[in-house]
Amino acid sequence: MQEQEARLRSIPGIGPVAALTLIAHMPELGNRSAKAIAALAGLAPFNVDSGTSRGKRHIRGGRKRIRDALYMAALTASRMPRAFKSHADQMKEAGKPFKVVIIALARKLLAIANAIIRDKTTFRRTT
Questions:
Q1: What would the pLDDT profile of 46-101 be if each residue is shown by its tens digit?
Q2: What domain range includes position 81?
Q3: CA geometry: angle at 85 spanning 84 and 88, to 5°?
């Protein structure tokens, strides 16, 4: 468990609380696809369509504790200059609302955490 915590904490924005929350409340981490993990955490947008009408996409359901921990981690990561700030700034410039940006970053953090646990590596910035 300490090894997993160290790997998760290598991700910018993920601190001790978020890492332990992910380990404790999401045992599927590393064993499912990124889409399935996002749906389990309640970070995947679901459509509200009926017939020919197309509604908005909303996140719903899932594990609230995971979502709350990742929301706070995404807030931190969105302010870190070398981490995910550029991604957040691009979304803001595109006119996305603040909470949409933060939830997108939370889902991105979860997908990265899933890959790190699956591959047994640490976070490496690609650019």
A1: 777 777 877 777 777 889 999 999 999 999 999 988 778 888 999 999 999 999 99
A2: 2-47+60-119
A3: 90
